[in-house]
Amino acid sequence: MILAKKERVALRRCLAALELSRGRFALSVLFGSMGLGSAIALSAVSAWLIARASQMPPVLELSIAATSVRMFGIGKAVFRYLERLASHRVALAGMGRLRTNIYAALAESSASRVAGIRRGDLLARTGADVDTIGDTVVKAILPACVAFVSAFVSVGIVWFLSPAIAIALVICLLISGVLGPFVSGLGARRAEQRRIDDEAELSALSLALLEGAGELRISGRLGEMEVAVRRTESRIHAHRDRAAKPLAWAAAIDTMALALAVLAAIIIGIGQLDAGLLNGIELAVCVLVPLAAFEGTAALGPAALQLVQSGQAAVRIVDLIGEKGTEEKRHETGLEPVIEARDLVVGWPGGPDVAGPFTLTVQPASKIAIVGASGIGKSTLLTTLAGLIEPHGGSATLGGADLSTLDRESISRALILIAEDSHIFQTTVMENLRVVRRDLTEDEARDALDRAGLGDWLARLPDGLGTMLGQNATTISGGERRRLLLARAHASHAPIIALDEPGEHLDPETADRLLGELYASDLGIIVVTHRLTGLEQTDVIVHLGDDGVEIGAYDELMEHSPSFRWAVQEAR
Fold first, then answer.
1. What pLDDT is attached to residue 571?
2. Nearest to 65 by CA among 246, 284, 367, 348
3. Distance of alpha carbon 476 from alpha carbon 472, whole angstroms
4. 473: CATH
5. DSSP 428
6. By residue range, what is the domain housing residue 377?
7. 410 with 298, same domain?
């Protein structure tokens, strides 16, 4: 009732991806129940002790009760502390596994899955939204389990003394534990949805502000961006205030139910006392036990709010990784490293066709250059040949198997893609190469760096392969960054390397030298480039122009393609 069907399905999937340890979660429920049970027992024993002491019995008759009060008082704090330790250990471990499962799903999915999501929003989904799913364990599921156990214990104690008062207690517990959470969750849904959307917007704006502060200041838009951040923060605070109102109503309902339970116990108990069905000490116990029993149900209002937040976070995560079973990939070994495109039409998912149809074969030693004007679809074509997005028409196969049906590991054995914005991590040179192969040895790493022309550079580093690199390669030059990415490709042992603008942001001499080394290598090379110098070294050129796709050797295109010939002459 509180969650829509889509939210329930998404939340169940995300909770399953937490891969929680049932034993450890049961232990946290046990500790939580013992903590609240100690509070209930403390109220019951205290009530008995106060009422019995008023009768002036021998002190020895009160000693066990007095000791029990101290025991339950200490146990209440100790067990709640243990419950916090156990529950957070379970939740934090589950959040780590959920993130791992998300990254694994993204690694196997189409590139279009994240292409339309801003980096800040993506960060929010893998960060704050995952934290929200983890909070479901600690702030929603666990309190519900503990509240149920404590309510059962409380009703059992009162039922033993007075079934009539126990029935009244059950009714009041249902009001507090069902009506209150329903009001809290249902009333906060709209505000929470808007808050989550605005928090994603804030994350995207903040990341853009941090990364582009210099450019924004130069363009005079820094102040405008800061104002947008402040406005978004203000909206988030307003949404939180609106979501707190139903929570306040839930707290009021809980307090009202508690008051009714105590009042019912007094009214019914006095009647039973007059009838001789209950003595004064038992009446005191029946009146004071509900005061502790409602501690459990008081947590259900915030638990319902957390459930709403978690349901909406789960939908965002499932939207990111895709519906379960929609992208079943198969694992193949021993595929021949030959990529064949037949009548291929490419375009971004959901967008128009940008190139095709055309037919192309990529062999392990082929040197293929994809050239054309900016924005004409070169990177889209390369991404399609790498199996990251599905073609709009025709087919693209690897060793006869449809690329769109293969998992990333199967494709990576034959082809590795180095995107223009491939990331250099803030870690050692060695670990940056191990991104493609976890079992990479130091000798293999040195060989890969040598093949990429970084042998002398490695020798000059203070700690060799153990040298730390700055975040996103800020401590090395643009040429060294490109060569390090190339070394990463060599380390993969893939026979075909696909590169997107390897000469981008490099000076012309360095870019031409890097491309020349690629064309002279013994590997299969598919390169997207805007540089038209050195294309004589390639086997095949794919020229994307306004008139369509032209494919041929350099001499053929120079002779038969006026647009290509004009572009080459202009580049000179």
1. 64
2. 284
3. 9
4. 3.40.50.300
5. B
6. 339-571
7. no
